[in-house]
Write a structure and sequence with these properties.
The protein is an alpha+beta fold. The chain contains one helix and six strands, in the order E-H-E-E-E-E-E. It has a two-stranded antiparallel sheet with strand order 1-3. Strand 5 and strand 6 form a beta hairpin.
């Protein structure tokens, strides 16, 4: 019998447990590799409907997805389009906390 993967469920209102340490470690490794090669770090972003977060359970699966995934660079926040694989990443976007301005890191 094939076991179906469990949906991502977060219990007891502790939404802060996402991302887990393993996800943080993976992101750190991917960012280091992308920075070392001046490469984009492509990711897919989507949205989910959350009926009642106060219940303490979030189910994030295809039944609660409410937007089509969009692909963009985690580092420079550029959306993917054909030919982008040949364009170097401009670097990490940083927000100036004093005025909210956004710019690329030097």
């Amino acid at each position: 019998m094939t076991r179906r993967p469990e949906p991502l469920v977060v219990g007891t209102g502790e939404v802060a447990i996402i991302p887990t340490e393993a996800v943080d470690d993976q992101l750190d490794k991917l960012l280091a590799a992308a920075r070392a090669t001046n490469s984009h770090l492509w990711c897919a972003l989507t949205s989910y409907h959350v009926a009642d977060p106060s219940r303490g359970v979030l189910v994030l699966d295809r039944n609660t997805m409410i937007s089509t995934p969009v692909v963009g660079c985690y580092r420079c926040e550029t959306g993917w389009r054909p030919g982008m694989q040949d364009v170097p990443c401009e670097g990490d976007v940083e927000e100036d906390e004093s005025d909210g301005a956004v710019g690329h890191a030097d």
